[in-house]
Amino acid sequence: MKHIHFSEDFTKLQNRQFTTIRDHNKKLRLEETVRIISPSHDFLAEVVGMEKAKLVHIDYKLLLTDLGFETVKTMREAEPLILETMRKFYPDITWDTIVFVYIFRAKKSRGG
């Protein structure tokens, strides 16, 4: 079984459905079950969606939600926050970087 590791216990991991944005292809398939691991969570989730696109083409509201900035309202406010946060994980990322967005739905049984 494939694993997706999160370096922090992001709030989004408490949601039934959540996303992750990666700068590399995890080679996941729709309906595949993967193990989600963070410092204090370990549970199974199903891949329910995925997208490959340049960062600039990903909906900024999805990016903000994924990164935990739900209160930011405009793209002007969002742009610097998105890049600054993404660069904590991927230092060389730019708006032209191809990224992979994976959408997961947590299975009913969760460990924590």
TrEMBL record:
Q: What is the protein name stated in its UniProt record?
A: ASCH domain-containing protein
Origin organism is bioreactor metagenome
